[in-house]
Every structure is written in C-alpha cells, then in structure tokens.
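Quarterly update from the structural biology core.
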Amino acid sequence: MTMDIHNKPIQERIDWLFNHAHNHSCNYTNPESWLARTRYLAEHPTAIAVLKCMDGRINIPIATNTPKGIIQPFRNLGGMFDLGWPHLGEVLASYVQNIISEGRHTMILITYHFSKGDPQRGCAGFNYDTEAAKAHTFEIKRQVEAVFGGGHQTVYPIVCGFETDEDALILHGSNGELLNMADIKPFERDTLRPRLEALFPDMSQQMCEDLLPLIAGNLDHIEAARKIDRELNIEHREWMICIGRGFDFLHMPNIALIIGPYSPSLADPIHKAAGIIESNMKAGRIPDDGFLLFASVPFQDVGVDQARAKMKSNFLCEFAAKEIRQSNPQLAEKMHVKSAVLNWQSRALEIMNEGP
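Predicted structure, tokenized:
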C-alpha cells in the first residue's frame, strides 16, 4: 500500500494518510498493543531517543524492527541540532528528566546518513558531505555529555551512521571502533553482545541488553531488504512536508519530510524541504498534482495544554505556508494545507484546518 500510494492523485493520498493515522491510533490503544509495549519496556526499560534528519528514508523503528511507540524521534534538516537552542534544550531535558524520574536510563542515538551507492542520494542538508555530517554528530555528542554528564551512567549518547541503500546502522564506539551492521552475517548473531561490550566498555549491562534488540532487528531488516527491489525506497519520493511533532504514525519510508520545531530558524529547513518536493515532482518520482503541508503538535492534557497545542499548530502551519509561498511560488499553487493536534495518550489526531 505504501509503495502504491505515491502515484495516487493528491486527494487520495491525503485521504489515505488520515485513514492510516486513524488506524494507527486504534492499533496503538488496543489492549494487545498496550500489553506488548508494556512487556517490551519491562524487559528493556532503557528509553531510546533518536536525533535524525527530516529525510523520509531515515526510519529507525522500521530499520530495527522495534515496536511502535518505543523510540522517541527528534527530527531536523540534516540531523542538525544544537542543545543551545532554547526549545530543543527544554524538550530534551524534560524528556530525560521524566525518564530518570521513573528510574530508567536514557540512550540517545545521534545519527547521520549517506548512500553507499550514490553520494547524491545522501544528505542534502549537508550538501551530500558525509564527513561534515559525521563531524556534526560528534559535536552534538559532546554537547549531550556537557549537559547530562560524560560518565554515561544515566544518559548514554551514541553516534550512529545510517546507510540508506540497505538501512544499515553503523555504531561508532567510544574506543573509535565501528560496528557496521551491513558487514555482519546472520550466523554471527551470537557475536553481537560481545561486539557491543567491546565497542562501549563503559556501558551498563542493562543498557547493553536494551541496545541488543535494536541491532539484532537491524540485522534481520538488512537481510530482508537485500531480497527485494529497493530502487524506489532508496530514492527521495516524499510528497508531504510535516512540521511539528507527533508523526510516529508515519513509520514508513519516503512519505514525508519531517521538520521538528526546534531550531530558532525554521525557514531554512522549510525551504529545503520544499525544494526536495519540487525536485521529486520534476523527476517524476511523485505526481505533480499537489503535495501536503501538515502541521501537528501533541498535547498531554485537555484544557490549557490542548488549547495551546492548537494555537501552536496553527502558527506552524501558517508560518510554513507563508515561507513556501515566498520561496517556491509555483510549487505553492499545488500546496494543500492542514493542521492538527495529537492526543499523546491515544495517538489520535484532531484535524483543525481543512482548507486546500
């Protein structure tokens, strides 16, 4: 279904999207899913956060076969972050503090991405310069250690490459060694634990236990990916720009470019995202009949929190639409605009703006 949807008329794609979001909420709240998440977190209590690019191909839950709702994503253009940004710093600190108050550890995967088959399928945010992207992730790691401590006993930051042709993780160890999951054979599964222990000698046993399912899942995912034609998956085919948070129902490749509301300058990632959508249309990777601009903001509680989320979502939607009209006026003529808020407890979307 996700492969076919790219070629449908824009209104069919939008209808499909919100039907998919509704189904995701139903699945998320059903007893079996709730029990499965609860059981998983009981067995693997370490919280996993991922700092990653807005690129729709960077899909860590899919690439690691991790249940939905476990990994907390933070997205921005090129995976560019700075913990000095006021909103990002507050959101990340609040996230970590909530986890710690539950007596759990936090692991933060700081990612960069590239394509081994074609540099031009790499990260547009860094102008396809993988070394520059990699250097930036190490700077973020230093910032995380400056804020949360370098002892790694509570918060453990890991620099992690993501090769998009095979969705392979590349873990950068604290000793400078690499673990490239694309190089591991299925029969070497039993070596994963000692490899992790050698890669991260200061990592607690519990965190190692909780990282193991991700890389084992990635091993399985890579093997499956090698057996299918991934030509369309490895190319940009996104047909929507998302701005805000609460897009975990989009756990599928090449649907959306997701821009987190973290940077003090949101205009640049919006312009870059619009350029990618325009390029996708010109190259025939998606129909040129329209694209969707979609803003979403989550809320925890009804009342003030929900009302503020609605105001913020509308602001992000109007801001992004204005930027696209100014930077890409011809593309803006094909823009469909919608805003929503997301109930974080049920993952249910409430659509507010139904305009074109």
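The chain has eleven helices and eleven strands.
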